[in-house]
Amino acid sequence: MLEIAAYMLCKIGGMDGSADDIKGVLEAAGATPNEDEITKLLGDVGEKDVNALLAEGMEKLKDVPMGGGG
């Protein structure tokens, strides 16, 4: 999860979101970068647009029941 958050911060900040960018964000926050997780993340997102990824996720979430059961 830290890797995803760091990736998103990179993208929001106008960075490429490369492995080095992600490592830099994690180290600046005092976390230890996990090379395997970073490699997996970058393999999964590839060259996809972040806004498209978020839109896909939101589309999937619309079917998840959310609300109080009272």
Write the layout of secondary structure elements.
Blueprint: H1 2-12, H2 19-28, H3 35-45, H4 50-61
The helical percent reads 55-70%
Could you tell me the strand content as a percent range? under 5%
Instruction: Find the structural class using helix and strand composition.
Output: mainly alpha
- Secondary-structure element string: HHHH
Return Rg in Å: 15 Å
What is the distance, rounded to the nearest whole angstrom, between the alpha carbons of the first and last residues?
31 Å
- Main sheet record: none
Mean pLDDT: 90
Low-confidence stretches: none
Overall 3D shape? globular
**How many alpha or pi helices?**
4
Extended strand count: 0
Tags for this model:
70 residues; single chain; 4 helices; 63% helix; globular; mainly alpha
Structure description:
The protein has about 70 residues and is mainly α. Helix content is about 65%, strand content about 0%. The protein is built from 4 helices and no strands. α1 crosses α2 (about 20-30). The chain is globular and about 40 Å long. The model has no long low-confidence stretch (mean pLDDT about 90).
